[in-house]
Amino acid sequence: MAYKTPEVIPMIERMRREDEFFSKHFMMSYSGLSKLQFSPALFYNHYVMNVREDVDDKYMLEGKLIHCLLLNPEEFDKEFVLNVTDTPSDNPRLLLRTLFNHYKELKANDADEERETLTDFAPAIIDILKDMNLYQSLKTDAQRVDKIVNEKHENYFEYLKKAEGRSVIDQNVYDFAYDTVERIKSNAKVMEIMGYFGDSFNGITQQNEIELVSFPEGFTFGLRGFIDNLVFDPTEKEIRVNDLKKTSKTIKEFPDSIEYYKYWMQASIYKKLVESTYLSLPEYKDWKITVRFIVVDPYGQIGPVKITDETMQQWEDKTNQTLQEAQDHFEARDFSMPHEFLLNQELFL
Fold this sequence. Notes:
This protein has 15 helices and 8 strands. By secondary structure, it is of the alpha/beta class. The protein has 2 domains: 1-55 and 187-332, Lambda Exonuclease, Chain A, CATH 3.90.320.10; 84-169, no CATH class. The radius of gyration is 26 Å and the shape is globular.
């Protein structure tokens, strides 16, 4: 995750954004709470001022793709696009990107705009070529347009349209993620844990990428989270919370990642959300909640990491303390300094 120097926002605009933020019921996620604990000022810029600085790195992109291919493969074309391998040369590529910006403006201003191919935009291509002083030695506009309208350039123009709002991946990243998903599917233990062997006889059901929310008493904000894999096992009277993790370290080092990325906080929030949503219902009376991470490391090792009740209780205690500190920030409407300074004005060592 990378951060830039926050943009300078005039005081009147800051006050307007603050009023807007506090006028709504904020839904706190694991990422939001982690950001607040790391740096209240960063939380303030990201959520209150709405200045977003997060940047996906390679491992995050691979993890996102593995999630999609395993849990929601039907969403692939909505979220990702493969990078083109046969790109146009510099000048045609610049022209096509300029034309694509023109295409976007037309679509934004006219819902009935139907032009989609390069041939449809011949007049615009001629104008851009003039501005670029490109192919002007040719005798006719038709000859100039023919320099641009070809299969390679049409494919690149289509790629630009597909890439808008999606994550661009290369073939190597796709192949790695696809291979990883196939190995997960071939791991009988992992597939059993994730509920893929459920049927009408054992009654096991699963839900993938499910959003849960709750409104814990005593807090001015709610909680929300997207759970990767939720499994209901009536035989064991167990709800299994499974979170898929792509890690940059070996699977043996995953405990270090839990602490570094505060995954203990994520697990605790997910458990709270499941408790609030399901355990209050009569059909889930006396059911237990089991939390696991399904870990994928860079060397293709895949394995479940089950969180014991004792460890989960320790994590919940830490998370409850962190949530209370967050509540203190919200009540004071002060995200200028860490919690210790909020209480004491200065730090004592």
